[in-house]
Design a protein that fits this description.
Blueprint (H helix, E strand, L loop, with lengths): L1 H10 L8 H11 L5 E4 L5 E5 L6 E7 L4 E7 L5 E6 L4 H4 L3 E4 L4 E6 L13 E4 L5 H5 L7 E4 L4 E3 L2 E4 L2 H15 L6 E7 L7 H10 L3 E8 L19 E5 L7 H13 L5 E4 L6 H6 L7 E9 L6 E4 H15 L10
Parallel strand pairs: 3-12, 3-13, 13-16, 14-15
Antiparallel strand pairs: 1-2, 2-12, 4-5, 4-9, 5-8, 6-7, 6-9, 7-8, 10-11, 11-17, 14-16, 16-17
Helix pairs in contact: 1-2, 1-5, 5-9
Length: 334
């Protein structure tokens, strides 16, 4: 069930700022288990499952995927693009892309004298148009393309584009479906995370949860010549200590570590040198909301071949369920 749900979510178009298709797919899975479900003004999908304590827990994962926005169409029908989120031009050359409409194209770069690698200013999309008129009849300025990627299973591991963060959307959905009715659980599938944690910011303000549990992917230190980092695929989900968006409060991490220990769930500690997650937005909402991030170790983030270990995902599902089963939630004590 989990793997089939993940594959369906991965297949849905959902570029940053264009998340409605993937939102509809996720809704189809979680709506039967929700007491209330809705999209807010930003486009966040919010499913609610009520409990008895009067406390609110916000589970979150972002739906959006990085992409290429059309900024110009030249006279020969080539599309000039800019990035929506953290695009690496070097790995984008000679990649297939697809627009929400289904129009497909290929990315390539305009060679420049002395150029050793691609840049956003030299990237273009070729959709097979012979001139401006034909291209403009298929694609408009402001349309966003995403990488075409194939789902592959590599033993216990899976590889696909958009694992960041659909793999965590699937984890949140799975945990939400059978969440115990202790607290009110808000499963929030956020928008526009890749351009500044925008959806989580508005959702956390509106919901005003007592505790936030965010799920996202994180980098690893187990591939050749990568930056030193202790996180490895297959060693369990991580408890985030710090990234560029947040330092998780110690009392929150203590709570997570205790729950993991008591439920025999293997976890890793994570310090991410760069990058942020929706947990950073939740922590800074209103007067401050206790929040954490549980991460899935992932190789090759922001490429069409993002790779994660299913054992880490299943561990994360168990971890979230254990946290939702706790009668007490972490609270600051002066």
């Amino acid at each position: 069930m989990f793997k089939d749900m993940l594959k369906t979510m991965l297949a849905a178009y959902g570029a940053t700022g264009r998340e409605q298709n993937v939102s509809n797919v996720i809704r189809s899975f979680v709506e039967p288990y929700a007491d209330e479900i809705y999209n807010d003004v930003m486009g966040n999908l919010i499913a609610v499952r009520t409990g008895e304590s009067g406390k609110k827990i916000m589970l979150s994962a972002h739906m959006d995927q990085i992409g290429f926005i059309v900024i110009d169409i030249d006279e020969k029908g080539f599309l000039r693009v800019s990035n929506v989120g953290g695009i690496n031009p070097f790995i984008s050359v000679a990649r297939a892309v697809v627009f929400e409409s289904g129009v497909q194209g290929v990315l390539f770069c305009e060679p420049e004298k002395g150029m050793k690698e691609a840049s956003m200013s030299t990237l273009f999309i070729d959709i097979g148009a012979k001139d401006y008129e034909e291209a403009a009849s298929k694609v408009s300025i402001g349309d966003v393309a995403v990488y075409v990627s194939n789902y592959m299973e590599l033993g216990d591991r899976v590889s696909c584009g958009a694992l960041d963060d659909r793999i965590c959307c699937a984890i949140v959905a799975e945990a939400f479906m059978n969440a115990p009715r202790i607290h009110d659980v808000y499963a929030v599938f956020t928008v526009q995370e890749e351009v500044g944690l925008r959806g989580a910011t508005t959702a956390a303000y509106a919901i005003n949860p007592d505790f936030g549990i965010n799920l996202d992917v994180t980098a690893v230190g187990d591939i050749p010549k990568c930056a030193k980092m202790s996180v490895k695929l297959g060693n369990g989900p991580t408890i985030k200590v710090m990234d560029s968006s947040a330092i998780i409060p110690k009392f929150v991490r203590n709570h997570l570590e205790r729950v993991a220990c008591e439920n025999n769930i293997t976890v890793q500690n994570e310090v991410l040198a760069a990058g942020g997650t929706d947990a950073g937005a939740v922590l800074k909402t209103r007067g401050g909301i206790p929040a954490c991030c549980i991460s899935i170790p992932t190789r090759y983030i922001h490429t069409p071949v993002e790779t994660a270990d299913m054992r880490d995902c299943l561990g994360a599902i168990d971890f979230v369920r254990a946290l939702l089963s706790e009668k007490e939630i972490p609270a600051f004590k002066a």
